[in-house]
Amino acid sequence: MSKLPAWTASWIGTGLILAQIVLLFVLGAGGIAWLRYVGFALWTLAAVFGWVPILQFKKSGGVARGESYVKTTRLVDTGLYAIVRHPQFVAWPLMAVAVALISQHPVVAAVGAVASAVFCLDFPEVDRMDAAKFGGEYRAYMERVPGWNFVAGLWRWVRRRRG
Prior knowledge:
Blueprint: H1 8-27, H2 33-60, H3 87-103, H4 106-134, H5 136-144, H6 150-162
């Protein structure tokens, strides 16, 4: 587990991705068009993984009116949460890769790689906190749904729906 206070690594990773975006504007986009298109597609996917969970938690998480979306009282395991346990943790590395592909500059790619690695530091702590909050129900959820790997999660989701 991270030796940093909870969420510190995520804030650092977010700052690094913001630095990537600033560097993209300063250095400009790269010259390989198809890489830019893949980057924009990943950016769109990152937006989905970043914003949809807010709506899902508000709708299904038992969040009290006026409270932050993260103050859930019920485990959400539908929608994106049926594919990965932490879609917003998936969004940030996707964004880092997207910006690197759009920029095609080695410095932007290096900053994105560090940002993605930094996010990994908070991930085990988030699972620990959620397991403490939701108990055995969350541990069973951890068995069914991967934390980050949305490709494996989508595959498992499709198999569960067929079976």
